[in-house]
Each structure stands twice: as C-alpha cells, then as structure tokens.
C-alpha cells in the first residue's frame, strides 16, 4: 500500500544518539553476540576530486576519484548533503541490531571511490550499503533504482549473487515503507566503488533530485525515516545471522 507524505515539509533535522566517532570506527557493543557488520557509504563529498584512479585493481582504465553529485532543483540541496543525512539516520537506526562502520560522517572529506570500498573491505563487512540520489535532464523522471555488482564482471562476480539476494529483500521493503516507484534492480559492472570490493554491496538511488516533487520529499525527515526503516526491515528480513551461519 502506498504511503503518502506531504512534500511541503523540508525539515532535515536528524536526531543522532551516538557520540561522533572517527571515520571507519566500529560502533562498540555491550554484549557478546556477534552481529552482522554493515558498512555505510554516503555517496560523494563536498568537493569533487577529478584526479584519476584505476576503475579496478590492476586496470588500465582510469576514472575520476569522486565525481560531483546532483543537486536539488527545488531545495538547492547538494546530493552529498542528502546522502549523509540519510546515512547518519541509518547508522542510528541499525546500531542496536548491527555493528556499523561509517565511510564518512562529514562532508569535508577526500575519499576516493576505491578507498571507500577498501574501508569496507578492511572492516570485513558483511555488506556495504551505498546511498545516492539521482538526476536526469527530464524533470518528470522519478523513482528509486536499486543497483548491485554485476555477475558478468570479473571483479564483481564473486560478490554479485549475494549482493542481489540481499538487495531483492531490501528493495521490496523500502518500496513498501515509502510507497515510492521502483525503477528496478539493476547490475552494474562499471562502478569503481563496486570493482574494488571484496564484500557484498548494494547501491540505493533514493530518488531524483531533478524532479521537484521528489526533491522536496527526499529532504522531508519523515520520508527519510521511512527509507531508513525500509532498509533496516529488509536487512532483518534477509536474516543475516542464519545466512552467515549457513555459509550463504
């Protein structure tokens, strides 16, 4: 059932209970239960870095380290700001049931796409969640797109199947919580942030900031909470604990 949220509110205040931690630092737990480890990456950063880096380990194909993201046509908010707002909210929501590593907690960073992947690799994360927003020359285009590492790419093939399995569950629950239009689940083999990964990953394009209605909605705190609620519900429904124990 679709859920309606007024797009008139642009309240973006996010309540974060945890004290700020250094980038990549694990949220500490008080119990001894092994929890799934989620690495959260808020896409882009305040200043793009157009220096080049290999798109994959050993590749001669080069790509900008971090491109500039899109911008809200109505709110004028930068994508990197929106991505971090949702990422911080997601960190807070997951902290009770999952261990969490954040790729960044501020916008004033310089972390390339390969480095973002390696932060999650080094943490030995069970999943990397990449948060982005879309843009399009056609202002009528709207909806969420869900992306996973391609099974056809030599670099991403090892993590493709599990990434897709997780994403299918998460995408369904996000759409259920938000009522957003789904533009589908799509494999990509051309993304540096996927090619350097050794762990499963999903990328959520939360909506189009070039669509006036969706742009305002994406900055609505209640809508952001519903995106986060959908992600968490999907992760729980995937049942990481049993899947890890069964070797899936």
UniProtKB/TrEMBL annotation:
CDD domains in the cross-refs: MurNAc-LAA
InterPro entries for this protein: MurNAc-LAA_cat, N-acetylmuramoyl_amidase_3
EC code: 3.5.1.28
GO MF annotations in UniProt: N-acetylmuramoyl-L-alanine amidase activity
Domain MurNAc-LAA: 117-236
Domain of life per record: Bacteria
SUPFAM superfamilies documented for this protein: Zn-dependent exopeptidases
Example of a GO cellular component annotation carried by this entry: outer membrane-bounded periplasmic space
Keywords: Hydrolase
One BP term from GO: peptidoglycan catabolic process
SMART domains found in the cross-reference section: Ami_3
PANTHER family in the record: N-ACETYLMURAMOYL-L-ALANINE AMIDASE, N-ACETYLMURAMOYL-L-ALANINE AMIDASE AMIC
Name this protein carries in UniProt: N-acetylmuramoyl-L-alanine amidase
Organism: Paenibacillus amylolyticus
């Amino acid at each position: 059932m679709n859920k309606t949220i007024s797009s008139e509110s642009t309240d973006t205040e996010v309540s974060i209970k945890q004290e700020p931690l250094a980038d990549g630092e694990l949220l500490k737990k008080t119990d001894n239960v092994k929890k799934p480890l989620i690495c959260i990456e808020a896409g882009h950063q305040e200043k793009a870095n157009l220096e080049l880096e290999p798109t994959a380990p050993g590749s001669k194909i080069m790509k900008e380290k971090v491109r500039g993201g899109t911008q809200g046509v109505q709110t004028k908010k930068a994508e990197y700001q929106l991505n971090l707002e949702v990422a911080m909210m997601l960190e807070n929501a997951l902290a009770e049931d999952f261990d969490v590593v954040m790729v960044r907690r501020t916008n004033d960073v310089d972390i390339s796409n390969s480095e973002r992947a390696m932060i999650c690799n080094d943490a030995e994360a069970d999943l990397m969640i990449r948060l982005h927003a879309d843009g399009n020359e056609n202002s009528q285009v709207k909806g969420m797109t869900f992306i996973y590492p391609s099974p056809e790419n030599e670099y991403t093939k090892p993590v493709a199947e599990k990434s897709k399995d997780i994403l299918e569950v998460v995408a369904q629950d996000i759409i259920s919580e938000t009522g957003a239009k789904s533009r589908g689940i799509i494999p990509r083999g051309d993304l540096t942030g996927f090619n350097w990964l050794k762990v499963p990953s999903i990328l959520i394009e939360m909506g189009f900031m070039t669509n006036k209605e969706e742009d305002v909605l994406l900055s609505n705190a209640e809508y952001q909470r519903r995106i986060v609620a959908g992600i968490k519900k999907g992760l729980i429904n995937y049942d990481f604990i049993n899947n890890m124990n069964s070797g899936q």
